Amino acid sequence: MSRIAKRPLTIPTGVEFKIHENDVHVKGKKGLLTLPLHAAVVLEVDGNVVTVRPRGTAHPMVGTTCKLLGNMIKGVNEGFESKLILIGVGYRAKTEGKRLELSLGFSNPVLFEAPEGISIETPSNTEILIKGINKQIVGETAAKIRKVRPPERYKGKGVRYATEVVILKETKKK
């Protein structure tokens, strides 16, 4: 069994954890998330502690299920956030409702519609904050926005994660 699954999950106060047939429902102050349970996994709930165990000898999904449940509990309680930074002259971002408008040096602005459950904010012209309760959707949304204009290797211009380090290449010499 994986080391991740050996540690039990603690459910904080204000979070409801319910097992309904083959689904797990986690409800908190930020929203509700549902996860279908794999057949090779058994959940044991004791008060506010959840333990993930394999059914029989098969245990490849135990660590994955444990990590997904931990992300669900954190998401409905605190939420997830991803920050993007625009680097380049004239690169700007602005939001109008659930729509993000990016000016990234193309002839027309790029319009990006936020998926359900995701909020996009622009604290400044060159910063984008993506917030939501589902870690996977927050990460996918950030990756899709970054994919519009990824940072190039010679000047570093483009859309990058706030924690990303872009190593610049040296230009050709004569």
Can I get a quick summary?
The chain has 174 residues and is an alpha+beta fold. It contains three helices and 13 strands.
What does this structure look like?
Strand 9 (99-103) and strand 10 (110-113) form a beta hairpin. The chain has a four-stranded antiparallel beta sheet, covered by helices on one side. The longest helix has 16 residues, at 62-77. The protein has helices at residues 3-6, 62-77, 135-148, and strands at 9-10, 16-20, 23-27, 32-36, 41-46, 49-54, 80-87, 92-96, 99-103, 110-113, 118-121, 127-132, 158-161. The protein has three helices and 13 strands; from the N terminus they run H-E-E-E-E-E-E-H-E-E-E-E-E-E-H-E. It is an alpha+beta fold and 174 residues long. The mean pLDDT is 92. The relative contact order is 0.14.
Helix percent reads 10-25%
Number of strands: 13
Total of DSSP H or I helical runs spanning 4+ residues: 3
Low-confidence stretches: none
Give keywords.
174 residues; alpha+beta; four-stranded antiparallel beta sheet; 3 helices; 20% helix
SSE blueprint:
Layout: H1 3-6, E1 9-10, E2 16-20, E3 23-27, E4 32-36, E5 41-46, E6 49-54, H2 62-77, E7 80-87, E8 92-96, E9 99-103, E10 110-113, E11 118-121, E12 127-132, H3 135-148, E13 158-161
Antiparallel strand pairs: 1-6, 2-3, 3-4, 5-6, 7-12, 7-13, 8-9, 9-10, 11-12
